[in-house]
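hey all, quick one before standup. I had two proteins in the batch that finished overnight and I want to keep them in one place so we stop losing track of which output belongs to which input. First protein below, input sequence then structure tokens straight from the run.
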Amino acid sequence: MKKFLLTAALLFATQAFAQDSMEGHPMPAPAAPTEEQMAEMAETAMRLGLPEGTIKISECVPGMGEHWARPQDLPLGPIYGVLDGSLVFVEIMPSHADFIAGKSWVDVLKTPKWFLKINHVDIEFLPQGHDGYPVPHYDIHAYYVSHDEHMGFCPPPAP
């Protein structure tokens, strides 16, 4: 039953992020994980200091990296960006309605590892939302690497 729930959560999560909001490039969704892959994800999440239950919800997205999250934290997040085994960002996606209502988010973009320092923050308003989260919302990324560096991640295939 636990395996079924984890698989169902992963499938939901991958569908929720089937589209990269920044560049309009499709976000490749991973296949349902095997037990071995689930164990590898748990080990990676622990090594990166991510919360227990954090799993990979997308393959590498151009300009960002892989997306990792706990399915129960979606769609708000936090969502973590990983590239080559390193943490490169933390993201939240608050709805526009929550901003208008005056909702606050305290300590949600915290750094999972004490030695990581935020390099810059990108805030993008998506008035139509995107696949998997089709409501007006903000994508807020706190990057641990320079803008030039992450823009080179996972370049999209040439047309």
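OK second protein, same deal, sequence then tokens:
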Amino acid sequence: MYIGGIAQIILGILTIFLRYTPEAQSGGIALPITLLGAGMILFGLLVIGLASGVARGSEAARRGATAVMLLGLAFAVLDLIIASDGDWSAVISQSIATVAVVIPLWVGRGRRYFETR
């Protein structure tokens, strides 16, 4: 989760830099690009905060991390439907990330870790 949060922050910073491209300046979309980048940075900080809570054994953080991952998957599916371009890459990558984070939180040693807290 820490790696995902840091990656999200880096992508948000890179998105903010896109506002300086000639296409963004001439198209008048510099502000929406900046706001999108800021949102990505804030989301990355949220993920890092949840990761810290999970490391401490917080049940609320475990539920929050599960909700964030499932919400990301829902947004990827929604993007696939709205864009209607047939690009499944976002859905596949988000599905893999969701399984990689959620299953260890709720099954096996992860479940026992939270039961002892």
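Flagging for whoever picks this up: The chain has a mean pLDDT of 90. The chain has two domains: 1-56, 58-117.
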